[in-house]
Recover the amino acids of this structure.
């Protein structure tokens, strides 16, 4: 199914929109590039910094009216550029002091289905599907105790995959893209 919103075209196999499938960032739809102007780029940077900014605060930072902010936000959401707003939780402060990364292999034909099954494990926070044949799933898990990690590993081992490696993560560093300074080029 093909649908256009503004200058964005969505290609939805079977009419399914990936934004309706929680927890997926995979290639469920083909989206042409959405062109961001300077105001959009600044707005995205501000929202990544703090998604709880009010429209009034954003408008003051952007030098536009809050009505313009509401319109921009709606357009970015409708186009699938902004896909949600989330809180960042310090898992260690609430008792999950162990952060593990499992490297697994699933049959390519079953990789996506296995990833969905893995995401049903409560302590799993992220599953990344890789395009390789071997070691094609990365699974991130938080746990409170060694015993809990072992129980999670056993649960993963019951699925249609092979655990190739497991690592205790010391630290993870990430940051959002700085849309104000990155030059975006058309496809």
């Amino acid at each position: 199914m093909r649908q256009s919103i503004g200058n964005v075209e969505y290609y939805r196999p079977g009419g399914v929109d990936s934004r309706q499938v929680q927890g997926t960032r995979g290639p469920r739809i083909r989206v042409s590039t959405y062109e961001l102007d300077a105001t959009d780029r600044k707005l995205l940077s501000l929202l990544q910094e703090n998604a709880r900014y009010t429209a009034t605060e954003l408008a003051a930072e952007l030098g536009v009216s809050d009505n313009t902010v509401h319109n921009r936000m709606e357009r970015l959401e409708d186009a699938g550029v902004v896909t949600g707003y989330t809180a960042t939780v310090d898992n260690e402060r609430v008792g999950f002091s162990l952060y593990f990364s499992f490297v697994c292999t699933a049959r390519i034909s079953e990789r996506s289905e296995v990833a969905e099954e893995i995401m049903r494990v409560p302590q799993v926070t992220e599953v990344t599907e890789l395009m390789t044949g071997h070691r094609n799933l990365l699974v991130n898990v938080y746990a409170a105790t060694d015993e809990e990690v072992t129980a999670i590993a056993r649960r993963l081992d019951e699925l249609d995959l092979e655990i190739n490696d497991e690592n205790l993560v010391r630290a993870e560093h990430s940051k959002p893209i700085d849309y104000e300074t990155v030059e975006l080029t058309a496809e």
